[in-house]
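My main concern about presentation is that the manuscript never shows what a single data entry looks like. In essence, backbone conformation is discretised, so a fold becomes a row of integers matching the chain in length. An entry of this sort, consisting of the sequence and the corresponding backbone structure tokens, reads as follows:
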Amino acid sequence: MADLPFGIDFGGTGIKGAPVDLEKGEFAAERERVKTPKPSTPDAIAGIFVELLARFPDSTGPVGVTVPGVVHHGVVHTAANIDEAWIGTDADRLFTEATGRDVHVVNDADAAGLAEVRYGAAKGRAGLVIVTTLGTGIGSALVHNGVLVPNSELGHLEIDGHDAESRAANSARERESLSMEHWARRLTTYYRVVERLFSPDLIVVGGGISKQSEEFLPLVEIDTEIVPATLLNKAGVVGAALYASENQHS
């Protein structure tokens, strides 16, 4: 297990981590989970990561970390659902110095997208795959022939004068007590715009609600093939580890 990469999925409520076997796209040891501290400042999170990695003394490979925000060359530029102190933080450098490991940070939806393309619902698919995560907001990942186009942020497309995720995210369904049929109509509107702008070969739908995909996905009326994600809550950890292994020492 020594040189296996380690994936950390850092979210607003929890931090999950495990070493990952990239041959299989599986955890190489039991995943550990800790609550996200309040406030979730970069220094506080760095301390948690040091503790988390110490639980896996056999794992010495590169470390990938998901962040719910735009990440550009290791620097975090937005902070959705995490402390605003993240904005402008060189997270790659901070975590590398704190842990003594080669650490690479990636947007959380991008990590999930990489995992689904390599191991999950889009495995073996050529062309443009768009992975969307329906949750508090709408995360997105564009992967073209296996190569990630980072920070697409398609949840913030303006549709009918609204930020798309404010109407079509799972949180909107819950907040407005929408039926699956009503929500599927909003998703149809959203995915038709995505389809028109990008002409994808496949759309993959993730996020916790994807476990109930049979209740709403068949009701989404678009021309592009649209399928549920298969890695579910493993996608972030697996995708982060994959990202780190492909970007180590860069």
